[in-house]
Specification:
Layout lengths: L1 H8 L1 H30 L3 H26 L4 H18 L1 H15 L8 E4 L2 E8 L3 E7 L8 E9 L2 H4 L3 E2 L6 E10 L5 H16 L2 H15 L10 E6 L4 E10 L3 H17 L22
Antiparallel strand pairs: 1-2, 1-5, 2-3, 3-4, 6-8, 7-8
Helix pairs in contact: 1-2, 2-3, 7-9
Length: about 290
């Protein structure tokens, strides 16, 4: 007890108490600011960024307080860091790489909060970017399609140096998708192609126009050629059936619901065609041949 009292009465002890007190004050003030944010900022994205900014300011103030309090001992501290630097760097290489990844993420265009990415083998929407880890609301896995499965996953920021980062919503928040429809070779394929094109145009709404605008911006910023964002219907055939491929551009968050709308429209069109076209199936036909006497 006497040693603790002696330490607290020393210069180092007084400095430590001062740091703890300042840290406590900074924590309380930042917590108060974060609690009153929802009252004045209604937008979710702005609210999130404001909270992150307050956290950053709190860390900066705490670092300044430590450096100011121990300013007289910085020379000895620098010597200590020089001696222990190699060991610290080796022991904390993953942490250092993660912090470096955090800096690169915020100073480049890898991804931002709200983007849909494939990172470290995990696909999901970015809901938070911390100093060490990126938090994803995961999609897919045991759930078919681009739907949330309810699992929140954290991935180290250093993955941006180790693996490719797939961003589904960065500069171009649209993706190309396809639907394949096999029909019998006896069907009216020219009429079918016209009807499939009409279905695509009616199902996609404004996606085509919006995608064209985004792609024009892409051609200015990047060395990329002009892409075809209009719906495209192509066909191939063999001895079994004709296969139509319906290619279209769609918002990355509306892929599943758009495909559902297209399939329902196609089925309705086929039923109303009165046998003009029929869906082909891998089945065998038995012909009844009557021999002439």
């Amino acid at each position: 007890m006497e040693q603790i009292t002696h330490f607290l009465n020393s210069n180092n002890g007084q400095s430590l108490l001062l740091i703890i007190g300042l840290g406590f004050i900074i924590l309380i003030v930042s917590s108060i600011f974060k609690k009153i944010i929802p009252k004045y900022i209604k937008d979710t994205n702005s609210r999130y960024r404001t909270r992150k900014f307050i956290n950053l300011i709190a860390y900066v103030l705490l670092i300044i307080a430590v450096l100011t309090t121990y300013s007289n001992q910085l020379t000895g501290f620098a010597v200590f860091l020089g001696v222990a630097g190699a060991g610290v760097a080796f022991a904390l290489q993953e942490v250092i790489a993660a912090i470096a990844g955090f800096i690169v993420i915020h100073t480049s265009n890898f991804y931002k909060v709200g983007d849909r990415v494939l990172l470290g083998g995990i696909k999901g929407d970015v809901i938070d970017i911390g100093f060490l880890r990126t938090t994803l609301m995961e999609i897919g896995d045991w759930v078919d399609g681009d739907l949330y499965n309810g699992r929140i996953t954290t991935v180290s920021n250093n993955f941006i140096f180790k693996e490719p980062v797939f961003n589904y919503s960065g500069e171009f928040p649209f993706i190309w998708d396809e639907v394949k429809i096999p029909i019998r070779t006896e069907g009216d394929f020219e009429w079918a192609k016209e009807e499939f094109t009409k279905i695509l145009k009616s199902s996609l709404g404004t996606y085509e126009k919006e995608a064209a605008q985004y792609w024009d911006k892409m051609t200015v910023k990047f060395l990329v050629e002009k892409a075809k964002v209009e719906p495209l219907v192509t066909m191939v055939f063999d001895e079994n059936w004709i296969t139509f491929t319906l290619r279209y551009v769609v918002d990355y968050k509306a892929r599943r619901i758009t495909k559902d709308l297209i399939f329902r429209s196609i089925l309705k069109m086929i039923k109303e065609s009165n046998g003009r076209i029929d869906v082909a199936a891998a089945s065998s036909e038995v012909l009844n041949v009557t021999a002439k006497a």
